[in-house]
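Researcher: We're teaching a course module on how sequence relates to structure. For the next exercise, students receive a sequence and then see the predicted structure as tokens, so they can try to spot secondary structure elements on their own. Here is the exercise chain.
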Amino acid sequence: MRGVSQLSLFSAEARPTAFADLGGLFCGPGRVVRFGGGDTARISVDAASAGHATALRAATAPFGLALEPGERHCAGRELRTPYRRDLSRLAHAWTDARRVKTIPAGFQLDGASLRLWVLAAGRADRRGGYLLVLDAAAPATHGPLIAALTRLGLPPARVSLPRCPDCQAEEDADCPADEGGPDPADVGPQPATPGDPDEPVDPAPPDELPVVDLTVDLTVDRTVDLPAARPERPHVACRGHHLVVTRECRAAGPALRITGARRMRRLVELVGPRPAELDTTGWPQYWGRSQA
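Model: And here is the predicted structure for the students to work with:
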């Protein structure tokens, strides 16, 4: 006879929480930042909504952490802890010698860490699947996380999320509309306007070249202080062939998509019940038939 489904050994409710479970926050864009010599560190994570912020505070409270509000951005609002000594070991495990985020050796996902990943960087894809956002600034972490999900019975597909509507609209506003003119790349050099100081001059025959005095007065200081060069920013060409600087959009970037009735059932089993602060659209759901 079939009864209630048995609790998985990897489920978020199968064991007490451990400090290492906080690594689930760093599977997505969340960061643990070391300060100074590395004796203290703090956690920084994004909350997509007020409900996510409340749920993240409740989930991290058992670890003795207090998440404070930080700056707002297009993907929500940053939450971060103060710098603390007890986060130093976690920071050394999740960053290398250059302080670049990395996956710890022997890292294994389970329900507790996966639940924190879902809270910090999960969203429904409105097609029956679920998205787990990756850290675009730490591409070396993507492969190990795909392997960790696969070992957990959740082999994902890798996808790329588009820019949010606000960032896209702001970029489009900087791009003049295409007036239907010819492509500048297809137009050859045009004759210079008469009297134009930049008009090219036909070179004179060798015997008629002017004599130029190349002597330089070294007693005159001709040094000019130039402004510091600004770092180059990525750019794209709009339809009007104007170069437009692309603005960083924290909602865009790589993500892992979990689909299929069996995998979604497994995901729901692992992460546990939905927090009361979140609506049903932001939490994994299984739409298959229940087993009696």
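Model: If you want an answer key for the exercise: Residues 1-7, 184-246 have pLDDT under 50 and may be disordered. Residues 2 and 292 are 6 Å apart (CA to CA).
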